[in-house]
Amino acid sequence: MNPLETLAAWLAEAESARLVEPAAMALATLSPAGVPSVRYVLCRGVDARGVRFFTNYDSMKAHDLDGTGRAACAFHWAALHRQVRIEGHVVRATAEESDAYFQARPRGHQLAAAVSPQSRPIASLEDLRARYQELETRLAGAPVPRPEGWGGYWLIAQAVELWRAGGDRMHDRVRYERSEGGAMWSEGVRLAP
Fold it and tell me: I need a labelling partner for 92 at 20 to 30 A (CA). Which of 11, 27, 31, 168 fits?
């Protein structure tokens, strides 16, 4: 069984249930100095490799990801009584993947990504809004080019845990690990709640 197929099905179910931000996942990274950090990002793709998300390549998370090459994430859909944990290594998405996703985003999101020095200090929010307006005016409806320092990452799943809530806290937890070559998944190992 490929647990990433279950993740994709659960994510689709969460979207169908119209949950608030069903694609939100907590992304945990570790700096090269060993400092942990966690934040929410939006999952923007699931396939046989793992999960994909996008960010500014100069953000703190990108520095962590590029510095260690490792990450973990967790999805939690309380209304569906489910969660998924993933551990693995990260690789940058291709320029083509990043371009395609960037162009599919709402224009306002494109403009915000183009002007925001994500995770960096700014003089004020008003200053950032002014830069946004200036760019919108300068482009005058023309396409917003993807910023060179913005793109995607794939969290290549090495381990996946599927969790379903159970009565009296007798939760159903099953952990899957990918084989050395990465082509096969282990038979699920049931974990105590």
Answer: 11
- Reference 133, options 145, 146, 115; nearest CA is 115
What pLDDT, on a 0 to 100 scale, did the predictor assign at position 50?
A: 97
DSSP classification of residue 160 = E
3-state helix, strand, coil in the chain (%, to 5): 35, 35, 35
Burial of 32: CB neighbours in 10 Å, binned 0-12, 13-18, 19+: exposed
169 in active site: yes
Number of Cβ within a 10 Å radius of residue 27: 26
Q: Model's pTM, two decimal places?
A: 0.92
Residue 29 tokens, joined: 């990274």
Give domain 3-105+148-191's CATH superfamily.
Electron Transport, Fmn-binding Protein; Chain A (2.30.110.10)
